[in-house]
Write a structure and sequence with these properties.
heterodimer; A: 263 residues; ABC transporter involved in vitamin B12 uptake, BtuC; B: 322 residues; alpha/beta; Rossmann fold; four-stranded parallel β-sheet; 13 helices
Amino acid sequence: MFSYAFMVRATIAILLISPLFGMVGTMIVQKRMAYFSDALGHSALTGIAAGVIMGIANTTVSMIIFGICFALLLNYISRKGLSSSDTLISVFASCATALGLAILSRGGSFSNYSAILVGDILSITVTEIIQLVILFAVIFIFWYISINRLTAISIHATLAKSRSISVRVMEDAFAVLIALLVMLSIKWVGILLINALLILPAASSRNISENFREYTYFSMIFSIFSGVAGLFVSYFTDMATGPMIVIIASVIYFATYIYGKDR
Amino acid sequence: MKNKYIFVLLLLFSITVVCSVGTFFYVKLNNETVASDDEILVMTSCNPVYIATLNVLDGVDGYRVENLSQPTTGCLHDYTLTTEDMKKLSKADYLVVNGGGMEGYLDDVISAYPELQIIDTYEEIEHSFIDSEPPFITEEEHDHEESDEVSHHHDHGDSNSHIWMDDEIFRYQVAAIAMGIEPNPNREDKLISNNMLAYTKKLEAEIDKQGLDKTMANQNVAILHEAFAYTAQSLGANVVATMDLDEERQVSAGEVSEFLDEIREHDVKIVFAEYDYGKSMGDLIEEQTDAKVVYLETLVHGSYSKDDYIKVMNENYRKIKE
């Protein structure tokens, strides 16, 4: 199996992306930001559309820039508290998706971009793996420095503020981090499934964890396991990799749910 | 607490066992024969070039022709490679593609397998026309000839890459494939060029346009799939309105009314459409105008047999003639 260069690259990519999903997912679930990351995933279409309009050859750049702006704007408006955050996120996500679809389907050419809906980890190149390595390092450093502050904010924002933690800066930095992770991995995972990979391992881990350390470790283990097992099963059965990973992650979720419920 | 860790271990172990056993049986049930190491593996990207390659290598020992796993519905442009395709490509000696932007994954394949020899039929034909323009349909050409045409093309740069739908161009494709495959030093070289000549002659002799190239010459037609621009070209007809419909195409009311106006204005009597994505629009056209809608095959999906091209083209012409 590893005699194929594409499988080696795909396995490396999975080993880089999946622990990040597991780790960042814990905070997304903890801070109830599942809608937020979903909206970010959908906004990738608008990012590509913006790149196409501006004539940017590498649409990943336009996706990242748009994703960061989108995340910060969403945070800013949510803070204003004019409407409940789930409504706001839903409005933003729908608007971004519609805008992206409208622009990309101009002249009937949406079929050129439909591959991004399901993703394709098998076509990842060495340069793109290097991008993932950099992302991996950035997220790990950020996590190491900020995890205590992020946890404090997720438990009680006002209390965190009283301990001189800049809630606004931390929230914005975390939103930018999610935007980077989502936009850099969406080509490989796909818009339709990216949120499942962010949420499922963390939600499974939450079902059985008793403290934050366990929560993070279990989430990363579940995420890596689903990623690797999904890739191997898809290799032998010739099925799409993303859905296979999500199926395995879902099985883990249901098993941990039943176990956690009976404890 | 210990129970929890045992539970996680057991859970992951059970999933591993279930996945392994399931995969094992799945693979066993779907086991396919693979090319032996001394065979030259020629992969093709879609049904038309697969048929052409099968005929070019017919009876030539030491070659094995396989097509990439194809979707049963949908458009070729959207196709993404499966793990099975990637496995086959890593062992392939040649990849024969239609080209012209039809295979969106081609750049990924080239970067992943730099050793793989790619025969791009579109490019080969383009290069063979040194002193004249190749018979390809481009957007500029369309816009120039039919300035008021309602056109909604897939984006293949500026070209319409469904070139196999014109049987004359298909013959050029057959020749490009034969010339692109290097003769195996252990084989009789002439067998490939003889096959090429025999198949192109067969195409010329057996494709029966039933006089349509005379009766439909300069007649105005409208199309609901850009592949049929080449059908019209092969019959000498003028395409005055194009609406390229596929599973993702959402048409606006304005486009539909403009399209219907074009049909009326140019006195279009016949519209070429693909049944799967053009039926509803076809019904609407027949209801709103005097034009007749004919549902043709694009050859993208088929039975993958050697004589499929001739059979399908003749069937298309028969439907137009009716």
